[in-house]
Amino acid sequence: MSFAEYEAVLELRRYTLHPGRRDELIELFEREFVDPQEEAGAHLFGLFRVPSSPDEFLWLRGFRSMALRKEALETFYFGPAWKEHREAANATMIDSDNVLLLRPVVRGLTSPPPGPELHLSLAAPSSDAFAVFETEPSPNNFPQLPVREDGPFTVSFSRSASPSGVLLEPTTRSLLR
């Protein structure tokens, strides 16, 4: 199995955190939540700080299909890791509902071109975008985790800055760099 298969359905999750608690959540997340989600059938492409927004944590979680998304989320969120650490994680957050459910237009998260920076854009993709996603039209099949429905959205990743883009700073366990 290739990680490229996990680009079929992507969640772009942007959390607004209580001031000064981002590193606390990242430490907990990397220690307690990455492996159990991977074991459940999700693939965590990227975990990021957003330098321009010190109280934001942004991350990407991929799935092979909508059906397997539902199965993976049920396994993780009804499982022991989330039950044990959810209160600590939720205590760091103001908002965890800024979530886009996406499907690929141009796949490329698993093999990005080399470069010193990674940028996310929520507008029309630049000519050098190496991965592009658009709103997934299927209904959210795990309603316990809301997704935004005010789209449609286009999301792209590139190595160069754009007017509508944000610089992403990978955390220690981020695969996308």
Q: Judging from the principal axes of the Cα atoms, what is the shape?
A: globular
CATH fold type: Alpha-Beta Plaits
How many helices? The count is 4
Largest sheet: spatial strand order = 1-3-2-8-5-7-6-4
CATH architecture: 2-Layer Sandwich
Q: Bin the strand percentage.
A: 35-45%
Could you give the order of the helices and strands? EHHEEHHEEEEE
Please state the oligomeric state of the protein chains shown.
single chain
Structural class: alpha+beta
Radius of gyration (Å): 15 Å
Let me know the number of strands.
8
Terminal residue distance: 21 Å
CATH class: Alpha Beta
Largest sheet: 8 strands, antiparallel, barrel
| Number of spatially distinct domains | 1
What brief labels describe this structure?
177 residues, NIPSNAP, NIPSNAP family protein, Alpha-Beta Plaits, Dimeric_a/b-barrel, alpha+beta, 4 helices, eight-stranded antiparallel barrel, single chain
Structural description of this entry:
With 177 residues, the protein is α+β, with helices and mostly antiparallel strands. The protein has a single domain, classed as Alpha-Beta Plaits, CATH 3.30.70. Helices cover 24% and strands 35% of the residues. It has helices spanning 22-32, 34-40, 66-77, 80-91; strands at residues 9-17, 43-50, 53-63, 93-106, 118-121, 131-135, 154-158, 165-170. It has an 8-stranded antiparallel barrel, surrounded by 4 helices. A hairpin with a 2-residue loop joins strand 2 and strand 3. Helix 1 packs antiparallel against helix 4 (80-91). 31% of the residues are buried. Pfam families: NIPSNAP (PF07978).
